[in-house]
Each structure stands twice: as C-alpha cells, then as structure tokens.
Amino acid sequence: MSGNSFGTVFKVTTFGESHGAALGVVIDGVPAGLKIDRDFLDAEMARRRPGQSKLATARQESDAVEILSGVLDDVTTGTALAMLIRNSDQHSKDYSALENVFRPGHADYGYFCKYGIRDVRGGGRSSGRETCARVAAGAIAKMFLRELGIDIVAYAAEIGGVKAESFDIDVIEKNPARSPDLQAGELMAAKVAEAAAAGDSVGGVVGCVVTGVPAGWGNPVFDKLDARLAYAMLGLGAVKGIEFGIGFKAAKLSGSENNDPMSEGFEFVTNNAGGILGGISTGEEIYFDLAVKPTPSIAQEQETVNKAGENTQIKITGRHDPCIVPRIIPVVEAMTAIVLADFALLQRCAKVQE
Amino acid sequence: MSGNSFGTVFKVTTFGESHGAALGVVIDGVPAGLKIDRDFLDAEMARRRPGQSKLATARQESDAVEILSGVLDDVTTGTALAMLIRNSDQHSKDYSALENVFRPGHADYGYFCKYGIRDVRGGGRSSGRETCARVAAGAIAKMFLRELGIDIVAYAAEIGGVKAESFDIDVIEKNPARSPDLQAGELMAAKVAEAAAAGDSVGGVVGCVVTGVPAGWGNPVFDKLDARLAYAMLGLGAVKGIEFGIGFKAAKLSGSENNDPMSEGFEFVTNNAGGILGGISTGEEIYFDLAVKPTPSIAQEQETVNKAGENTQIKITGRHDPCIVPRIIPVVEAMTAIVLADFALLQRCAKVQE
Amino acid sequence: MSGNSFGTVFKVTTFGESHGAALGVVIDGVPAGLKIDRDFLDAEMARRRPGQSKLATARQESDAVEILSGVLDDVTTGTALAMLIRNSDQHSKDYSALENVFRPGHADYGYFCKYGIRDVRGGGRSSGRETCARVAAGAIAKMFLRELGIDIVAYAAEIGGVKAESFDIDVIEKNPARSPDLQAGELMAAKVAEAAAAGDSVGGVVGCVVTGVPAGWGNPVFDKLDARLAYAMLGLGAVKGIEFGIGFKAAKLSGSENNDPMSEGFEFVTNNAGGILGGISTGEEIYFDLAVKPTPSIAQEQETVNKAGENTQIKITGRHDPCIVPRIIPVVEAMTAIVLADFALLQRCAKVQE
Amino acid sequence: MSGNSFGTVFKVTTFGESHGAALGVVIDGVPAGLKIDRDFLDAEMARRRPGQSKLATARQESDAVEILSGVLDDVTTGTALAMLIRNSDQHSKDYSALENVFRPGHADYGYFCKYGIRDVRGGGRSSGRETCARVAAGAIAKMFLRELGIDIVAYAAEIGGVKAESFDIDVIEKNPARSPDLQAGELMAAKVAEAAAAGDSVGGVVGCVVTGVPAGWGNPVFDKLDARLAYAMLGLGAVKGIEFGIGFKAAKLSGSENNDPMSEGFEFVTNNAGGILGGISTGEEIYFDLAVKPTPSIAQEQETVNKAGENTQIKITGRHDPCIVPRIIPVVEAMTAIVLADFALLQRCAKVQE
C-alpha cells in the first residue's frame, strides 16, 4: 500500500522504474469474456510513445506490450491480467551527476525524505515513463467500455497560452499538439518550438470529454464519480488542477445561472455541471479540464541544493518533452477509462434486482 | 463499498440521511493514547452548524456529538471510535411535493437512476447535512495532527465575484463570510444578502493552507498527496474544481518561471507547487483552492421534469444557505485533516528502520 | 484499519465496547430495494441474547436494534445502513479489581501490549458482546440471501465431549444446546451444568451447513470462498480451528477415496470437499466445523500476573456462559451470511456479459 | 478484485497461469532500505520447485526469479517490487483431452461456472504452480522479518497416516518428506511411494511454528492474527482445515484445563492457545496445523462428467505430486511471512506515540 494500486472491483497495480528492467501492470478484476483487440492496444501505446513528433522527446522506446496472463485465445479469462513493457535503453546513460543533487520541480527531494533513497535513474518511479503501464491498462478498460457504448476523448485545450477556439474531434489526432482546432494547434506547436529553442518548456490545459455514460454511475459521499476522476487525474505528476463542467467559472455565477434545467425525456437543457451532479452521472456528456504544468526538466541552468543542503546549480541534459500536454492526453484517457470500468462493474451491485 | 468509507490506515465511515434518525461516523484506526479535547470537538461542530449568521440557513440543529466507543477516560483506546449526531427535526416537514420531481442542480435524478429509490427527505444521503459527520471525524484527526505540529486553515478566497485581497489569518473566524480580508468579507456578505433577497444564491472559492507537514508525505503513483486531497475535496457535493499551488496559472508559465528553486538548508525560494511535488510533500506550506458552486436550492421557479419525464416547474422552499462557502470551510479543513492523519500513519511504514 | 471492517462490496464495520455506551454496525454496500423484515431482525438478535437458558449467562441485555440510516419505508435505499444497540447496564459494575491484572485465556495482555491501554470494562472491544453487531448485520445479509434461495444453519455438533449422532434440523432451535440430536442435546446440557457447578466451563464443536449457493462463487487465489469463511470464523474470539467438508479426515485418505466423482447433470456423488473446490463453490451443500474453546472466564482461582509482571491469582466473578457454543451459533450464521452476501454481489462482476 | 491481492500495508498481488507465459508478483508496500539477499531468494524458490525428490513431480521448472522493479543496488527503494518467473515448458503438452471434461477434486467445474471459460492448460490460474509467486514474495517478507528476529518453520506433521513423533528442527530439510522426525519421515516416504505405485495419492498435516513475534500483534475483531493466518492458509488449494494451538482438542477440555496461566515476567506456563489470544499475539510461540488433502490428480480412472453434463471417465496423465505436503511447506512459510510482515508494519500505527 505505497500507492501503486488504483480502483476497487477493476483494480490496477503498476510497477517499474524509468530505467529499471521493465514496467508493467496487473489488472485484478477484468471480467471474463472480453475480446482483446491487440491492434488497438498497440495503437494506444503508440499514442503515448515519445518521438512521435518534434513536440516530444526523441527518446526511442519500443513500448512493446507482452501480455503475461489472464488471456486465453485472445479472450480474457477473468483472472489477473498482467502486461509487461521492457525498457530498452536502461543502461544507456550516466546518472552519477544527479546523484548528489535535487532537480527543481521534481519529486527528487520528497522521495529522498520519504525513503532515504535517491533513485537517480531518470526519476525512477516518479518518471512519466511509468504512465505507459497505465495506458496499457487503460486500453483494456476502453475495450470493455466500448462494449457499453462509452467513448473517451482528451485533447489540448491550451498550450503556452494559445487556446483552441473550435472543437473538431476529427483533427485531434492529426496535429502534433493534439488540438481540436487545427489552426490553434499550429500556434501551439510554434510556442513549444520557441520554448525548446530557449532551453525552456511550456504548460497547458487538457480537456476530456466522455460520451455514453448512463445516468446513475458513481458512488455517494466519498467515492463520487468526479472525486474518483480527480483522484485519478491528480495522480498524474504534471497535473496541478482539475475542474468539472464550467468549474471555476461556476464560482462566479448565481444559482439561477448555474443550475442546469431539465426538460422532457430527462434531457438537460444546459450542462454546466459537466455530466455529474452530487457525484453521480446525469446521463449528459462528462467533461473536465486539467491544468498541466510546464515540464520541469529544462536545459537552462537552475538554482538548487545538494544532499548536504548546500547551494548548487543544475542543467538538465538529455531528451525531455518541452511540453507534456500532447503525450499526457492518452494517459488522461486511460485513467478515465480505468475509473469508468470500475464504476461500470460496481453499478451492477447497486440494486437487489439488477 | 458504496462510497461511505475514506482512508486506508486512518479510515472514516459515515452514515445517515438529512432527515433520518441520526448521522454518524466510525473511525477505524485512530491510534491509541490520543487525548480527546471535547471542547475542541464541540467548537468544530459549532463552526459548521447552520444558523450561525445571516449568510447561512436558519435551520436549528443542535449537532451534539455523542462518542459511542473507542474512548476511555477521555483517551482513545485504539479501537473503533464511533460518534453519533441525532437529527432533531426529522419529522418537521412535508416532502410529498418533491416526491415526483427532480430538483435542478441536485443529485436527485442520478440517485433515482442508480438505486431506483427517491429519498426526498431533504436530499437524503446527498444532503450537505452529511458533512457534520465528517467534521466530527476531522476534529479527531486535527487533535492527532496538533501533536505533530500541523495546522490547517481554510477561508473564503472569493464569494459572488468578490475576492479577498489581503490575508490576515486572525480575522477569518471573525466575519460571517470567513474572509481573511475583513473589508472584502463585508462586500462578500452584501453579495450573499443581495442574492438571497432575489431568491437566488452565489458561489465562490475556498482556499486552504496547511503548515507543519514535513517533506516526504504522500505515496507515489496513484495515491499522491495532492491526488488524495483532490479525491477528498471533490467528494464534497458543491466543489467543482481544485488547484494546487498556482494551479491553472502554471499552465500559462514556462518551466523556468514555474519551477521552484531550492536554496541552502533545503528551503524553497518560491512555492508555486503548493508544497507538493510528484505527489510528495516538500516541507513547504501546502495550499490549494476550490471552486464552490452556487447553492442549487433557490427560491426562484425553475424548469425541471417529473418522474415520468414530463416538463414541470419547481420552487424550492425552506431554509437553504444562499452561499455555501462559509459553512463548507470547516468541512474542507476536516477532510484535509482526515487525509493528513492517514498519511502521517502510513509514513511510519515507509522504511525498514523507522 | 484496525480490524473493524469486513468484506469488499458488502462491507461491514462494527464499533462498541462491552460496557461502553453502545455497540453498532454500518453496512456499506447493501443493495437498494431490499425489504427489511423487522421481526426477523429482532428474532435473530434474540437468538444471540444472553439469558435465554441456563446454559447461558443471566446478564440481561435488551439488544433492541435501532436502524439509524439507509432504510426508507422499510426498504433499503442503497446508502450506508447503520444500526445501534444500546448497552443498558454499562455502569452496573466495579471493574477496579481487574485493572491491574490480566485474565488467563483472554486478550487482556495482548491488547495492553498493543495499545498501552487496559480497558477492563468487561473485556472492552474483545468481549463477545461485540458480536451482537455482527448478528444485526448478518440478519440484513440473510434477508438478501433469502431472495436468492440461500439458507444457513449452524448447530452444536459437540459439547463437553458429547457429540450429536443424528441430524434433525427442526430440533436445533428447540433445545438449549442447539443440538440437531435432541438426546445428545440433553447430555450436552448436563455437561454444561456440571461444569458450571464446578466453577468451570466446557468447549465444543459448531457445525454449519449452507444450501442454495450456486456453483461458481468465490474468488481465485487469495480470496477463495473457504479462505474468506475461515477469515470470518477465526475472527470469532473463541474459535480455534475450522475444517471444510471432511477436513482433517481428508489428510488420512488417498486421492481415490477423497475425490468426489461427478455424475450426470453436474451432480456430485459424494461431497467430501464440503461444497468448495479450489476455493470456488461447486453447487453442493457447503459445510464446515469449528473448534470452540471452553469459556476462559471461570469462577475457579487461576494463576496469572499483574501489570508489573508479578505472580498473582484471579477469580472471575460475574455472569459468564459456562459454554459459549449455543450462543455463538447465530454469530456463525451471521458471519457466513456476510461472506456470502459479498460474494453474491461480486459474482455479478465476473463476466463481461452478465 | 478477483482475489489476486493479499494484505493491507504489505500487499501482494500475483498473476500468471500454470502454462501461460509467466507468473509473477508485485509487492506494494515493501519498506525502503531492505537488503535483498539474492541467494536466500533462490534457495526459497528451490525449496518449492518440483523434481527435488521422488516424492514430487518430475516436471522441470527452472523457477528463476527476475526482479523487475523496486530494488536499486540490492536495496529496496520503497516502490512496487515486481518479480517475474517465466514458464519454460508452456507449450509442451496437448491439453485438448481435458477441454471437454471436468477433473474430480479440482476447481475446473467451479471456474467454468464462474467465468464461462475452460482454461485447461494445467489448471490455469488454480494450479499449484501459482504458489511459486507467493514463495518469491514470502522470501522478501522473510528478509524483513529476519531483521526483527522472527523465524518461521513449517514441516510435515503427518503423511499418509504416519505421524512425526519427535521434533528435531534440524532434520526437516534433510529428508524428502520434510518431517521433523527422521524415522517417521522414512515411513512417510514409503507411504507416498506406495500410493504413487498404485496410481493414487496421499494427504497429510503440515505444522508451522513461528518464534520471535512480540506480544501485541494482530488487529481486534475481524482482522485477528489467527483470522488473517487462516485466510492466508485456506487460500492454498489443498488446505481443508486449520487449527491454532491445540485446536480441536480444546473443544474437549474444560476452561480450567485449557486456559494458559501466566507467571512472573509475563511468561505463559502453557501455550495451548498457540501464541494468540483474542486475535492478538501473546509473545509465545505461534503454532498451527493444516489439513492437506491428497493430490486430486491421480492416474487411476475416475468418474466425472463432460461439459454437457454427461457421464464420462478420466485418467489424469502427466507429472503430479503423489503427495503435496513436502512442497506446500515452503508456501505455508511464505504466506505466514506475508501476514506477519503486514502486521509488523501495521503495529507501527497502533499508538499516538510509537
């Protein structure tokens, strides 16, 4: 119970460090009889993989997923489904320069205080590399949700101050920024390139939209649907905030403006709430936004301290995304899928008569 | 597992409906030997209680807490600590008008779809009344954290568009808005009164600051300190968003602007991160903001549907806070305390040699 | 997480000490729509209550259950169902004689080492009185299982060396020993009376039979049906052993003798396994036996130590069952029901297509 | 949550099928700073491996453990520790003969009813092969417990009706039966050989003794130390019963005979309780016995049914242990270690002041 598991009935446990032997995930609770779409799994992994465009790090990771258990003749058996992703370049670099110093904006100092250990190899367990295991698990969750007619799409709502002004779902995967607004996407890409040239990085906002969730999902009180999604999203290292529906804008409205009236046939006239009321889905589109901080690993020299607490400087070399937004998008979808797969199953237990 | 429990080692389970017999909470995992400060417990309950000022509902709740177990001679024994809060006015009202209709902005429709049951008595389990059990549990958690030198303060950062411009911790509990800026507090109160007069409500932003948490708390990966806090906060019905540190502002900065440099003696020069990096506390002040929506229960007529899905109107009568911000503040502190008490204990398990 | 919760989807949390204000239980996960049979609940409580016969302690406990939440118009709502049982005679006795000494055969010394606290009031949390909360929860579980056609019967298989030689389910509740063999029941009662007269106590064996569980319940690996039942049963203070099916007798057989052949229509010719194979129910009757130790509270003088570790003697006065077997029987049924209710719900999550 | 995880703070998740690609385990909650003793890990795996003697199956499994994560320079980092064991002979056999038929004494029929899937490859997830992952995790737990002075020894107390009459801890690993009585060990071996020759199998009793556990471990109520150990042990497929201390013998004693008196210095004069009272360790030796059924896979022809429920016969070919007792012994130790490592950590959370 040091934080490596997530979920209740559909429960995901990941393991692995950035530059260790391998990363992986065990899903305990995949229902039996799910057809595994191997191409889809590979495609999801490819979406997260670095080196897809100039916006992302050039590090080459093959990210080939080996399914170790829980699947027989391409169908899940109901037992623990484990997947393994080997690290190909684990010994390729000398990290000794980092051994005695803490990188600003990273978990280095906190981990050291927590465990008394300094795993310098690319950030160890706190590296974004860990998310490849989440994407693999998310792909399985998506296959299950697909059977239920649920679709999840995340996208770049803003990068480096440039906002998407239009929303065309079809262009998201067709521009390196993953913007739903092609034109804005080009400006976003320019901002990223500019930052990279300056040895710097930029942040942004990721949006996520879910369609097909019926009314009634989520749990009362502590395990509300939005609470669980927030738990999932803030569990991503770069995410510093989340808002559901119109979010912080609701704080400025009156009740008569913010409330979503209902109309004939259980339709909602507006959806300021983002598809969740009192923690339970309303049947409307679920949508939320995430604040993504600029990548902390930058080439510029930064002030920091060493293990003795003495002032020193650090210049982080190596391959790092000048903006994490495009690559975090499939991870956001994956975590959303993992949350929803769990609630889909929990929902079966809500009534005496199903 | 329908969402009524929260936490791992310090684990809270609440029960009770707004207009049922009683509400209560069981804490499983309070360490033995904690001195119970009965006055403090009562004071915390009083802070949440309605009818404290004109900003809040006039409903009279005594909110007397009876400790049922887990305490002997005012000291915790290590066994389950249960607390009970009777509802005094449970049969005081006729709810039959609501039986056939769903209130906009509430969980009514979602609960009905989930459970096939319509508990109309003041919102039932989804009522804000449920949070009195959280405040009782939070008071116990605060007693424990006090021994560790940890202090938690929440406040009204914004109400009805009026922002606190200064921060004086001493004035927070001295004005009905719980604003850290007395002057802004008066304007906030005026905005609330104005909305109430119009049969409407207003939202706002709650801030929370925690001092005294050492570096190293929180878990890697899924159970990050900020993730767990977000889980706790979005579990409050009116909260629609959360941001840690500078939050959504970080999305607009470059890495060189956003990163917090460290300096001699493991100090951080800035604290944009809000005291948490990679999900682990840095030893700096932890701070976050919450978007609180305007109270959905308003006196104005609203469009909605009945159980048959036909259009109808609703006018919500009765006593409702025209702004929930002041009263949610002790609840935010309580949930923060519950999260930190859990991580305080979990931290003891992090190393082979404590 | 100090052991006061049990179960996963149907999750029970109990609280309360023997001589504190009250005992109680919260069930998180009762499905909505269950009709509450109040008479049945009361009858179950009566079955566990002391003072039913000369075999049991004369202590008078009314054991009236107040349902605090989770039920509306006698039907469960799906939210946390809490029940409260007040202790009527909590201040009736002077326990100061026990304050400085550890009772043999009790948890006194262990609790003191664990928590550094000595709760002398009738054993505090480790008292058998705690089980009344389990019986209340078990009654709810039984109501749910009844809808599924599942029936649970426990009985005295042996007391003070006297074994039941026949099995008539109809006589169990008609003799004070709860023996399924009336004649043996009389001998058992005589053994208990004899022990009581000598200031001593006797142990015995409780059997339990469950009919109606379909094949396929239970989880692989760590959470097998028998494993969970064993977890539940060894959680009863007086239980020192459990065996499923023919149990320890199987250790003496060959595979050809022990294996249960199957025959036409998925019937099992024999049922040595006790209805569980590889941790999964087979559709046959589930049965198991429990070793119940003699009540440790006896009137004879016993050697023990005080808090300083010095030799001393103790004579336990007050009302204590000279044999716990008859009164543990409804508790065994209750815990069995709690386990099965959980697996009944979990089973709904086993397949993609239910 | 389909049963593949065990534990709370020290939490083990296993995966893998008998004839799939690999088996493995993730431990979430290994404290940081534990020195990994690679030789000890290999030795533990070797103790469980088949083909060690004529008592066991001749199947060759290399059982080489690859540590994938959580360890840096042979010391645990506090992050998830994953271990992988490849199956070498996964495609070596034709299982088509089993596809349509259920093996007596196995989980085949139950799994099929549960998941609607028939994984015939050597029993799939329900195979004893799964326990190699438990032994790997147990080896890590043992390394941790060694630091605390705790030692765990399991042994063959009885095989095929032959009981060990003496107890010499030093001979256990020196005879193929793992009997603590060399002479009895030879008779046990003869019984096994005899059964094997007849195409049959035998069962037995495994004993386990733990020294060094201080008083105070375990949780009250549902998560008692003996309850958790019973949960762990009945989670082993072949185990049909467990008794702590004198177990079922206690059922025949009076309280004055069964109670263990205490004497000067908190010593116990006797230890009928097996080192656990009221679910909490007493500081005395913990000991328990397990009923192990005869291996269900036997070469003799057996009556069974096919998937259509029609009568048929089955003769199980291949390599199977004619007695599982000797090989289950390291698994019993491993599960005991996993339970104790968890309680060792939980104990740190019991008091306000550690």
Describe this structure as you would to a colleague:
- 4 copies of one chain form a homotetramer.
- With 354 residues, the first copy, chain A, is of the alpha+beta class.
- Helix content of chain A is 25%, strand content 22%.
- Chain A is built from 7 helices and 18 strands.
- In chain A, the strands form 6 sheets. In chain A, strands 1-2-3-7-4 form a 5-stranded antiparallel sheet, covered by helices on one side. A 5-stranded antiparallel sheet of chain A has the order 9-8-10-16-11.
- The longest helix of chain A has 22 residues, at 325-346.
- At the A-B interface, strand 1, helix 2, helix 5, strand 11 and helix 6 of A face strand 1, helix 2, helix 5, strand 11 and helix 6 of B.
- Strand 11 (239-244) of chain A pairs antiparallel with strand 11 of chain B, so a sheet runs across the interface.
Write the layout of secondary structure elements.
Four copies of one chain form a homotetramer.
Chain A: E1 5-6, E2 11-15, E3 22-28, H1 38-48, E4 65-67, E5 71-72, E6 75-76, E7 81-86, H2 108-115, H3 131-147, E8 151-159, E9 162-163, H4 182-197, E10 204-211, H5 225-234, E11 239-244, H6 255-258, E12 262-263, E13 267-268, E14 276-277, E15 280-281, E16 286-292, E17 301-305, E18 311-315, H7 325-346
Antiparallel strand pairs in A: 1-2, 2-3, 3-7, 4-7, 5-6, 8-9, 8-10, 10-16, 11-16, 12-13, 14-15, 17-18
Helix pairs in contact in A: 1-3, 3-7, 5-7
